[in-house]
Amino acid sequence: MTSPTRVAAALSALAAVVLIAGCTIGPGSTSPQSTSLPSSTPIADEDYDDMEGALLDDGRIFAVVTWGSSTCIPQVDTVTAEGQNVSVELVDTDADAVCTMDMVQRASLGGLPGGVDPTQDITLQVTYKDASDDVELEGAAVTGMPGEPTEYQPSAGWFDDDALVLVTWGSSGCPPVVASVEGSGNAGTVEFTTIEGQVCTMDMAPRATIVAFADGAVDDGEFTLTLSGGNLDGTVSVPARD
Q1: Overall pTM > 0.85
Q2: What's the mean pLDDT in 202-227?
């Protein structure tokens, strides 16, 4: 079993303007902020404890998706692994925080421990407050491995039929802000708001953004996501859903 790694080792410690070759993502590393989009589909109250997940950054990072306030996003605190079973504890960063009274899906990021094989199925055993759930991640044809240096490239993975988690790299103090989302077939576009004169922290961290499309609008096959605005212009290839 691996030793627990706490948020003190998070990627915010990579305080630098220029990317440093050889930096890695350790287990328990998290993004300080996540952008979430409200769901247009009514959800039964008993489903709000359900958790979902996605494999990201070429097999180095996982995301856990929970329901709650968009302004009070839980963070990954500890991660331990025994084989392909990964125990994940989520915590609130500020017990006294005043949270908005909305109910959206939020993504919390963590690094997979070394020894876990992302090409094989993984079970995330997640606990958050009084809730717990097993999140199944399908093995993927990735070339990266947990503990290896990241390439700081955007990546995305599906956690639902019409919703994915997008990871981008940049200042933790200036997470991406979604302006609009469009998708049809095997392609989609997410446009980000550009905020002029924004003062950002000088670190390099992964930022999680949930991108939700209209019900049934996108196909199951390989998908191309185009990013526009917010200094994030480019495309991301999203693996097909099983």
Answers
A1: no
A2: 96
* Residue 4: band (very low, low, confident or very high) from pLDDT cuts 50, 70, 90: very low
187 pairs with which residues across the strands?
A: 184, 224
> Is the separation of the CB atoms in 190 and 227 below 8 Å?
yes
Place of tokens 């933790």: 172
The CA distance from 49 to 187, in Å, is 30
Encoded tokens for 103: 């109910």
Q: If phi over 0 gives left and psi between -120 and 50 gives alpha, with beta otherwise, what is residue 93?
A: alpha
Percent of the chain with pLDDT over 90: 72
Whole-angstrom distance, CA of residue 184 vs CA of residue 215: 10
User: Up-side HSE of residue 16: CA atoms within 13 Å toward CB?
Assistant: 8
Query: Token digits for 179?
Result: 């302006």
| Residue in the structure block whose two tokens are 């350790």 | 26
Closest by Cα among 158, 157, 28, 12 to 90? 28
pLDDT > 80? residue 3: no
- Long-range contacts of the stretch 188-191 (C-beta < 8 A, 24+): 188/213, 188/218, 188/223, 188/224, 188/225, 188/226, 189/225, 189/226, 189/227, 189/228, 190/166, 190/225, 190/226, 190/227, 190/228, 191/228, 191/229
CA-wise closest residue to 214 among 63, 34, 39, 35: 39
Backbone angles phi, psi at 206, to 5 degrees: -80, 135
